[in-house]
Amino acid sequence: MLELTASHIDSLAPNAAAAKNGRGLVLKNKFVKLNVSEEGDLIFGECSGSGKSNYICSVDFVTPENPVSRCNCPSRQFPCKHALGLMYAYADGLTFEKATVPEDISSKREKAGKREETKAKRESGELPPAKPKKVNKTALKKKIVQQLEALDELEKIVLSLVRGGLGTANARTVKDLNDHAKRLGSSYLTGAENELRRLALLLEQDDRESGYTYATEQLTLLNAFIKKGRSYLQTKQEDPELVPDSESTIEEWLGHAWQLAELKEAGRVSESVELLQLAFYTYRDEARKEFVDTGFWLQLGEGKIHRTVQYRPFKAVKYMKEEDSFFSVAQISELYRYPGGMNARVRFEGMIPRQVNNADYDGIRAAAAASIPDAVKAVKNQLKDPLADRAPVVLLNAARIAQTENGTFALVDEAGNTLELGNVYRLPQPTTPLLSLVDPSLLENCAVLAMFEHQMDMGKLVAQPLTLIQGERIARLLY
């Protein structure tokens, strides 16, 4: 029997407005027909609208981890509000009459089944694999030459800023940086384009001291990319059929968008994985001109903290699915891992939710680092690579979180080692002050998910708490 919960349906909704509108259809009794298949893997029905004809909608759960919604309404969102309303109606226990699967859906199921069968046969070797795409060596060499020339131009700009000093930067400098960023994008260096725009934003900040501190770090980042990118491209120029580097982030810096098939071929896929989301937030990335939905997930049984990232361009935001907080365990058949460090980006195409149980809470505590020095050492090792993520996230065990005489907070482990808690520049909002507002018992014998950052102006490593976990209680400080 099909099991649906409101939280699962919320996670399928493209955005909060669509979920609200779908719920509204149920509350207003807009559904004039509600049906479920004999097997219980398809719900379908009719919903009255503003026109004479009803909207015909369905949600197919023949593949439970990846339900397919269909509707004849003109909405460009999937699932639309009618499909969402249909699911909310089922979750609320409304009466669904059993009926035969409509012929058009049976036909679509059959075609989808044949595609999956062919795919399975190719993977098992019963059918020859699909022919690999041939590399257009002439086009690739032309692209590499263009990228190398763009790197040379970028190097001139970086050196000019370093020699002149950041204090000489003005409005004209910012304009030149943004203009050059566009040219980098045209030369297939989208990663460098975004980071050069980020440098321009830092130089026009009102808080000059803070802006210059992170601008210096940004210049170091760009310089490291120029050197590594040039070396990598020259090697690729000599061997156009060179396999993409699946261990570092250099390919993404050079504008490569990883396909799931490429990640699978590189061995960056895990099967039968369970993830528990510990933190989630959304922020505006002005450099990328996108909203970024970011989630941090614990891989149960492995203890790794992964990161999911969803980019929604400002211009297309209303047409794209908006991610949200997720409070169940996600059961995933295939988890794809992008190249990266401690919190490698992951992606999955579908999942089946289940309720969090006691063993999962025990798993959180078992996965947390017991020693602050060990956790700090791992963070520092990552920060030695200038192209690595500058704000790694770690799960730590804390004997307590104490407040110092000057009002700041510190995490204390079982051995008495301490870690100063503060606010990280890269997060959209502070959370450390919220520690004084939570239940004091949450600050004793707990696990803490924290984001680290090296603050160059202060010469120290600071961690900002994202989530507190104690027993069966999870308090998310970021939203």
From TrEMBL:
Residues 55-91 form the SWIM-type domain. This is SWIM-type domain-containing protein. Residues 105-125 have a biased composition (Basic and acidic residues). It comes from the Bacteria. Residues 105-133 are annotated as: Disordered. Pfam families: SWIM. Keywords: Metal-binding, Zinc, Zinc-finger. It comes from Saccharibacillus endophyticus.
